[in-house]
Write the structure tokens for this entry.
Amino acid sequence: MLVSRIEEGTVIDHIPDWKADIASRVLRLDKLAKMQADVSVVILQNVSSRRLGRKDIIKIDRWHVDEKDADILSLVFPNITVNYIDEGKVSKYQPKVPDSIEGRIRCPELNCISNTEREPVIPKFATLKRERLLQCHYCDALLAFDSVPEYVRP
């Protein structure tokens, strides 16, 4: 399988095999289509890997994934690497679990004030890294890292 190299953009590597669709959802790649951006996205699934055996890769031509989004993706897939390409030169970014997350994930507790439309409250979570949980700033609800894709805000 041949996929051409990109001169400008992002490559997300070491996604577990058959999980690129989840990574795409967390990164909100569908927003690129809504923006009608001049961007190409290639999703490679179940690709051979010396390190993992099998893996998925996402290549985005002419678009840089925000580091905060990459950090959120690392909650679900801690072994991913993000490569930013500028004028053909690659710089690696190793995403890290953030101490807190604001505005990107909705609270799993339906009665939380951050889920009320009439309240202008931005969802905020503290990261409990050792337990692999997020804790809502307002209602203390807990959200497992693995459940983050279900609660990503559009």
